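Subject line: Sequence and fold of a protein, written as structure tokens
Body of memo: The sequence and its backbone structure tokens, given next.
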Amino acid sequence: MTVAGHLEEMRSRIIRCIVFVLITTVLAMVFADDILYILKLPSKDLIENFLILKPAESITIYIKTALFAGIVAASPLIFWEVFQFVQPAASGAQTSILKWALIAFLLFICGGCFIYFVVLPKAIAFLMLLSEGLTDSTVQITLSSYISFTIALLLCGAGIFQIPLAAFILTKIGLIKPQMMTAKRKEAYFALIVAAAVITPTTDVFSMGLFVIPMLLLYEIGIIFSKAVYKKNIFKGEKVYEEQS
């Protein structure tokens, strides 16, 4: 396929993904109150009351909540479209796309659960404690800012957990090799630490470590996946990777 053909296919798949998200977002509006309640649970006993400062802010909150739920609900179809696009380069069987999409979705959910149950409660507790030290009055948080903060963290966590699968796919299509991932480990660690510092809502070492440690572990798992697929996938003019002792 020509470059123009690839771009046209990408455009078509992106449009389909947008349509999937729009449909699931509309459907999620029916359950927006329940989803909003779930998103507020990590703040239980930490934030007593949320504020709404603008008349139309409640509409924005419902839209944010429904859009987040729509992205989660549409993620299996989005992953399916992504792997349909990269499958020809991977020279894999058509049936493997379903497996890739399922693994990506499970990692997506695992990442979100890790943020929801582990990171969010500790991050909110730290931020509230920090805020209380800056003011003599009761700390008041707007519901819109809290929802934006929570959704951003959940999506970041879901994305971080795609590292092993990304290493697998990129090795499969020949863009990276396990040797490169191993040789560039220090640089990758530094990049992941910087990324964790950017996305972590707090500046303390403990909260940052909640992001860094899983990211480093996932990178190591990605190396294992990369080695496994590279040993089975011999590219033209290359030798099978043999790990050096």
Notes: The CA atoms of residues 87 and 94 lie 7 Å apart. Strands lie at 50-51, 141-142.
